Amino acid sequence: MRCKFYFPFFLFFCSLVSAQNTNYSVLTIPENLKENANSIIRYQSIDITITSQKSFVEKTTKAITVFNSKGINNIDAKEYYGDSDKVNSIEATIYNAFGMEIKKIKRKDFKDQSVSDGFTISNERILYLDYTPTDYPYTVVYTSENKSSNTAFIPGWRPIDDYLESVQKSEFTIHYPPDLGFKYKEYNFTSRAINKIEKEGMITFSVENLAAEKQEEYSPSPSKFWPEVRFGLEKFYLEGVEGNVKNWNEFGSWMYNSFLMSAEELPEETISRIKALVGTEKDPIKKAKIVYQYMQDKTRYVSIQLGIGGWKPMLAKDVDRLGYGDCKALSNYTRVLLKTVGVDAFYTVIFGDKTKRDFKQDFVAMQGNHIILTLPTKDKNVFLECTSQTLPFGFQGDFTDDRFALKVTPDVGEIIKTNEFNEKKSSQISKGNYSIDLDGNISGEVIIKSDGIQYDNIYMLEKKSKQDIDDYYKTHFYWIYNLKMNKIKFNNNNESVEFTENLQISAMGYGKSNAGMMMVPINVFNQNASVPQRYRSRRNPFEISRGYYDEDEIEVTIPEGFKLEAKPDNLELKDKFGIYKMELVVLSPSKLLYKRSFLANKGYYEKEEYENYRKFREQIAKADNSKIVLTKK
Prior knowledge:
The chain is α+β, with helices and mostly antiparallel strands. It is 18% helix and 39% strand. The chain has 10 helices and 38 strands. The protein has an 8-stranded mixed β-sheet with strand order 5-4-9-2-1-10-13-12, with no helix packed on it. Strands 27-28-26-25-32-36-35-34 form an 8-stranded mixed β-sheet. A 5-stranded antiparallel β-sheet has the order 22-21-20-23-24. Helix 5 (284-298) crosses helix 7. The protein is globular, with a radius of gyration of 30 Å.
């Protein structure tokens, strides 16, 4: 009976196996690659052939197994195309968990749409796979062939593309002619076994069996520790413009002569207007402030990615006429206005992002995604962000601070570093008071002044609706239940770059009473309760990318008929990570003065120091939640 029962199943199983593509069955995936993985790259091959200064072909094959909905975004089955970039072929095949083909998707089945939206003007389009799975896991095998004339941008190799994604095998091959000045640079290769085969006119990189990595709190940008290879040419082509550069000096000169020199014309009427506004002012900074305010009042930001317009700014006279432009256009327009009144400012290419990202100084090639202006002064460079209508003059914020960029002058290019906000220049100073009544209710007021990066975190609040502002404070003061904001007043001082919050609050039941005793958390206005996650075995280094300084001085009035029974001890913590101080001074039987300061240092640290940092922050969180005990007299 048992043989008769299993025999048909055995025939079915054999027929099932014979219909499978065993290369894509999940049963063949090593177990260690499945751990923590939302997806696994089973095989990826990128083959690039540079045929001339004006042409290269890229062929891609990618087989990726997706285990859940979070892995769908890792498929990346998409291609951009436009006047200079063509998609010769694109298709995908879907396999189920056993490696059986369930769907074939041709080019006509890919979604095809414009990249333009309400904020971007572009002639580029995108082809992308739009597939809704019926079950997990499944495998997508994606192939494409593209041709581009823009050899200024040769795709690089990044075998690790996402967190929680394993790599079974990835390889990259590039073929190049010997007369174009081909170059490449490897980054972060030391911790992984990466194979390289190099021959005349060809180079191949490959890697196998990279287990999925979890993202860890405070990890630096992956660009600082994930492997990457960059490729480039000394002789390249970009949207109709040829380039031939060997160093940053030549690169800057090429960029100025190719993109900026022909975009400087302004209408005579505008020249007369801006000179009249500046008048007899001689100080370059004061003149620059007048011009900057004029630009902010006159223009608005719109992203423009039309052909060479993706890299060359609009003509200054067109920005003047239309009243809008992208970062390139608005920065160039401001540069030309400043030049009109005798102030030199320089077009500067940078990576704009809240996560700091530097120009690779050791690899001369097209880099960056944003443009600002550099205004040299005797003491330091002043940097102007020209896409914002509200940002104060010379204030960068966390989008372009403390990173290497390329300054473009008529003669040379120069790698410079933008200004950083040191800890004391990113301060939040709070002074206030609150009273506790017999039922544990509190009412009080506080004035909070923020500058530096802390200004950047808060200044846009004044533009929000009343409801959004109320919601912000309920989230910000999350430890105060039943919070009521009785008064909210802002003062945004653009000249000193300081934002002031004048707040009056109240809350029912903040102090908890029991049997004639009341416990009250002493720190009402600035608790830092965040404790970094504990890791049994941390893999990555960690980074505090920006430091800051908080100082609080709050007077506390205890209710009549109560006395102070117990208070937390004064505390001072000193470590490489920062300095924390907390002090509670008894001014009178009914008044206390709570004093607190926290200097958080920026820094890059090895993984072995993470647990010490976690404990440091844990002590701060505990101190910030300290309570006083009041008893009836």
